[in-house]
Structure of HIT domain-containing protein:
Amino acid sequence: MAYDTNNIFARIVRGEIPCKKVCESAHTLAFEDINPQAPVHVLVIPKGPYLNHEAFAANASDAEIADFHRTILEAARKTGVAEGEGGNGYRLITNSGPDAHQEVPHYHVHVVGGAPVGRMLS
Ligand code: 5GP
């Protein structure tokens, strides 16, 4: 599947669609999920055109990958779920590809927490 430059998250990166920004870095954007499944539900996305985890891990630069993970941590700290900030931790979820029911065709990681989220994977 080819990357669609008009997918909703690409449009958020370009500022064409608003989002509730949590934090931003050189290569990464973190914003609130429009349909939160927990008290804290943040989406972290690379600014570059990566379809899914596979595309990101294979093609992103080391700088982009490091930036992405640091921004996940920054988002967890800013929303108070990071244990270092007195929170109780968080779950990271990536749906990559059709079998995982990925809805938006731009790589993203969900940061979910603020309450116990259960022991199932999804
Ligand atoms: P997926 O199933 O692809 O892993 O999850 C996509 C997520 O994107 C869903 O949790 C959905 O609520 C969220 N989402 C879809 N459209 C928008 C939008 O326009 N803005 C924001 N902030 N989140 C969105």
